[in-house]
Amino acid sequence: MEKWDNNNAWFLVLPVFIIVAFSAIIPLMTVVNYSVQDIFGPGERIFVGSEWFKETLANRRLHEALWRQFLFSGLVLLIEMPLGVMIALAMPKRGWGVSFSLVTLALPLLIPWNVIGTIWLIFTRPDIGLFGFIINSMGIAFDHTASPLDAWITLMLMEVWHWTPLVVLLAYAGLRAIPEVYYQAAKIDGASAWATFRYIQLPKMRGVLTIALLLRFMDSFLIYAEPFVLTGGGPGNSTTFLSIYLVKLAVGQFDLGPAAAFSIIYFLIVLALCFVFYQVLQNVGKGERV
Fold first, then answer.
1. CB 111 within 8 A of CB 194
2. CA 11 – CA 7 distance, rounded (Å)
3. Residue 43 exposure: Cα atoms within 13 Å on the Cβ side
4. pLDDT means per 10 residues in the chain (290 residues)?
5. Which of 144, 191, 225, 242 makes an SS bond possible with 113, Cβ 3.0 to 4.6 Å?
6. Distance between CA 193 and CA 199 in Å, rounded?
7. Which of 231, 242, 65 is nearest to 159 (CA)?
8. Which CATH superfamily, name and number, covers 61-283?
9. Are 150 and 142 spatial neighbours (Cβ–Cβ below 8 Å)?
């Protein structure tokens, strides 16, 4: 009887699963259909097979955008993950400071992505932006619309400011879930702050940090609105990431066949990398005992 009750729970989830699957499969099948055809207009198309996939994989601009995307996501993870953990460790554990810190940290997460790009576009402009004006008044020529390096610095500052709070909130939740008895045992054993972090806090946070890393990787690898508003993919193509390149291909050039093939490749890359990340993180520290 208990087994039957457990199986009944699946019937409650089944309608939602069917709706989500239906809403996901229809667009995916449409993209797959476009990826094997050359579309000239309404009702005018010919079957080309895997031609668009071969052309896309050999595209030099795609390779450049892919490496820029890897660089951006790698820098995001290298900065936000350690920074988020450090801020979570420094946050108060009780009192009014907890609520104040959590609300303050959550503010950037409430701002729409396109508004984030607009805020930083104005904030870093050398003529009217506070940040741009201060930097240039110090004798440093800073202009993210003209210098690729300045554009990357601005993008990284914007991304770290916007999404590090997510890592902080997840890490803080993991820290608060650690029973006090572990800290008491560490204090009795005379463990240092580093030893407490290495052997108690970090292993206990592994689950939430795995979630944080996967979320941040997926979001940074699929980023579009913020860099599009801030730089438009420029100067030149220095900040043209995969998503921006895809939109230019599909909307700007109206090459629906190559864009569909590219979107499928894009999807498979993200799926494969997330799977690798998850497997690696699940295996790290598997044999540790606290």
1. no
2. 7
3. 0
4. 58 78 79 81 77 86 89 94 94 86 90 89 86 86 88 94 94 91 88 89 88 89 89 87 87 82 88 83 57
5. 225
6. 10
7. 231
8. MetI-like (1.10.3720.10)
9. yes
